[in-house]
């Protein structure tokens, strides 16, 4: 009877000891280097009208991110984000840029996040939408 109890308790105790040792020693600590999280930003929709350029963008990173600056054709432009604030994972926002775009021309946009990551988007032929 005691041998059967020993063969039942010993594996469970061994599993508990290995789990405790793994958590106490934290062998994966070397892989945490303090690097910023990977960010992803996708432009889902582009609308051009008399008020400027309107983008619908979606965040795809693991953590919340902030669109800090917007460049259009190499120049920084003022923009409004609706809703304001950081973009959570898979959330979408609208970015309104009062840019005087030119019909038929190509325009290059660069969205910069708070960590400095940049995301490019091109409008190959600008036409009202």
Question: Helical content, roughly?
Answer: 10-25%
Q: Helix-strand pattern, N to C?
A: HEEEEEEEE
Structural class: alpha+beta
- As residue ranges, the low-confidence spans are none
**Percentage of residues in DSSP E strands:** 35-45%
Query: What is the gyration radius calculated from CA atoms?
Result: 25 Å
Structure notes:
By secondary structure, this protein is α+β, with helices and mostly antiparallel strands. The chain has one helix and eight strands, in the order αββββββββ. The chain has a four-stranded antiparallel β-sheet, with no helix packed on it. A four-stranded antiparallel β-sheet has the order 4-3-7-8, with no helix packed on it. Strand 7 and strand 8 form a beta hairpin. It is rod-shaped, with a radius of gyration of 25 Å. The protein starts with a helix and ends in a 6-residue tail after the last strand.
């Amino acid at each position: 009877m005691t041998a059967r109890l020993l063969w039942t308790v010993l594996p469970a105790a061994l599993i508990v000891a290995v789990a405790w040792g793994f958590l106490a020693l934290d062998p994966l600590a070397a892989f945490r280097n303090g690097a910023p999280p990977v960010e992803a930003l996708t432009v889902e929709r582009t609308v051009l009208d008399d008020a400027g350029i309107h983008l619908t963008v979606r965040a795809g990173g693991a953590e919340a991110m902030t669109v800090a600056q917007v460049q259009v054709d190499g120049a920084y432009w003022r923009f409004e984000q609706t809703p304001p604030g950081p973009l959570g994972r898979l959330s979408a926002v609208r970015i309104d840029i009062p840019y005087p775009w030119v019909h038929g021309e190509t325009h290059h946009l660069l969205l910069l996040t708070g960590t400095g990551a940049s995301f490019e988007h091109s409008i190959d032929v600008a036409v009202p939408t």
